């Protein structure tokens, strides 16, 4: 079974996987370390170490433990979720151009969060992740239903996803301009996808859910290999396609929507991470999914660190940086994918 | 049943004759009603249509008449000219790409032009260059990029690739715009208001600039009309009839992006007007671009005048920008037109 799926889905030597995972892990640790050191105030690594380990000597408890540590961890966690979500969605839809953004999840979550922020300003902070999850799932379901459910016509699904995204964005615009209160700037920062002002409470509010979903996704990863065989062959192997596909899709949507709920619309990570991962370890999902998650974590944490250390007094939102790099990447994919025979995988 | 009968050969001339009178009359009535409503609404309830007379009698002394002259009239004119410009830009783009989903907003032209303006605001070396010029240039670059990505220059334009290319170019442009106003603190709120398409603060010079552009757009569209008709026959046929499709594509895209660029420099990126208006015009006036150009212009003016009136009539304290009104109509429209493509080939 494994051989079949390998031949079908990917080609690179799976033996490389542990090495790649280790290297990516090291990258992530390096990015996290940079995230603790860099920012408006530069803290020397020795001080960071002292602070983290609770040793004597110069310490920066407030900056390191109170602000940078939760923020950087949150960036890594949401990045991993987005990368994983992108990998699942691309596999299920058999469309290399699919991503949470393209199928309307981001915009749906954004709309729901803004709606929540304006209707229930007092409870907004606590409700945001739930609102985002609801909005993302609703938008995802609408796209899925309108695109003809499991017919999986990639063209149609993508167009419908974009169209639903536009409708949601019109709603976001509408909400933004009809509000004139002081709460104007917070949603604005959030819409560009920023980790500014995120702390332990935000991390605590989504970490259990995201962690659980990621574990579930990784457990189900070899099921994705079976999905990849195509409906007939998978059914012959005893896979209950509809149920599993629905469950996996729900996991993918929830991962993306919850991330959007807490850090805002950090785009293109869900698109880029799976492609980079596939280049590194090939198409087998047991290797691909954890790799995509790690790549996503590195990308998101890296964008956050770069955003606050490039032009120090000013902070560039992580979402702006991921879009600046992600859009050309997307264009490159668009140019190369379609030249291959069987463009929609 | 009735449309069928109308399209049948014997009934054809009768139907066309009826339409030839009714369509322009309907379009003009829509425009007139929209204008009247747009002029009659606004922040001050004591200013009404009656104050228009002051403009012609040369009085202009009362506050109400000054309000009408300096605020209401330029704004209504702007809305109408925007509608003409965007509608014609959309019509031309849809014809040259032979793609019903093409529109300035969806091909990344809007966001590209917006980037041009932000560049002018942020880069000191560009501060002397007129905004419209920068916007038009960057719009041109964006549409060229979108066409290159979607394979337009090799003659094969798929809807999906065109839209995805536009989404990507638009996302890049928009990210750069946001980067621009992150770096320039005071701009943020002003730019956000402006990026959703707001004509609340326009005065006569802007209206005149848009008017001149509308004149250019109309003349260019009339001049291109025959070529656009030939495009509809397909690459080979239009080549055979003496029109170089590539030249038409480049001319059309150039006109559309210059016109859109000027619109963006005045009102910000207004999405979807360029998509809806040509569709409505085609439903009313058929496929001949020589007739479509005036009908599109009239419908565009009408739609935007109505949207402007709608934006002022929204209950509550905040007036919503006209671009948001258009988006609120246009985005569902786009969704419906995507869904309606079911079963048709994507070409």
Which shape of chain A, going by the Cα principal axes?
Answer: globular
Strand count, sense and barrel status of the largest sheet of chain A are:
none
Q: Helicity range of the residues of chain A?
A: over 70%
Q: Name the helicity range of chain B.
A: over 70%
Q: SS-based structural class of chain A?
A: mainly alpha
Q: Residue-averaged pLDDT of chain B, rounded?
A: 80
SSE string of chain A, helix = H, strand = E?
HHHHHHHHHHHHHHH
How far the N terminus sits from the C terminus of chain B, by CA atoms, comes to 29 Å
InterPro entries (chain B): ABC_BtuC-like (IPR037294), ABC_transptr_permease_BtuC (IPR000522)
Organism (chain B): Alloyangia sp. H15
Subcellular location (chain B): Cell membrane
Transmembrane segments (chain B): 21-41, 76-96, 102-126, 133-153, 159-181, 207-228, 248-280, 320-340
Strand and helix layout:
The complex is a heterodimer of chains A (345) and B (347).
Chain A: H1 2-9, H2 16-37, H3 45-53, H4 61-93, H5 105-119, H6 124-146, H7 154-178, H8 185-191, H9 200-219, H10 221-227, H11 231-236, H12 241-263, H13 269-281, H14 285-309, H15 318-337
Helix pairs in contact in A: 2-4, 2-14, 4-9, 4-12, 4-13, 4-14, 5-6, 5-7, 5-12, 6-7, 6-12, 9-12, 13-14, 14-15
Chain B: H1 2-7, H2 12-40, H3 53-57, H4 63-97, H5 109-122, H6 131-150, H7 159-183, H8 187-195, H9 204-232, H10 235-240, H11 245-267, H12 273-285, H13 289-313, H14 322-339
Helix pairs in contact in B: 2-4, 2-13, 4-9, 4-11, 4-12, 4-13, 5-6, 5-7, 5-11, 6-7, 6-11, 9-11, 9-13, 12-13, 13-14
InterPro entries (chain A): ABC_BtuC-like, ABC_transptr_permease_BtuC
Keywords (chain A): Cell membrane, Membrane, Transmembrane, Transmembrane helix, Transport
GO molecular function (chain A): transmembrane transporter activity
Summarize the structure in words.
Chain A has 345 residues and is mainly alpha-helical. In chain A, 74% of the residues lie in helices and 0% in strands. Chain A has helices spanning 2-9, 16-37, 45-53, 61-93, 105-119, 124-146, 154-178, 185-191, 200-219, 221-227, 231-236, 241-263, 269-281, 285-309, 318-337. In chain B, helix 5 (109-122) packs across helix 6 (131-150). Chain B is globular. Chain B starts with a helix and ends in an 8-residue tail after the last helix. The model of chain B is unreliable at 1-14 and 343-347 (pLDDT under 50). At the A-B interface, helix 7 and helix 15 of A face helix 7, helix 8 and helix 14 of B. Chain A: The chain crosses the membrane at residues 73-93, 102-121, 127-147, 159-180, 200-226, 247-273, 316-335. Chain A: Keywords: Cell membrane, Membrane, Transmembrane, Transmembrane helix, Transport.
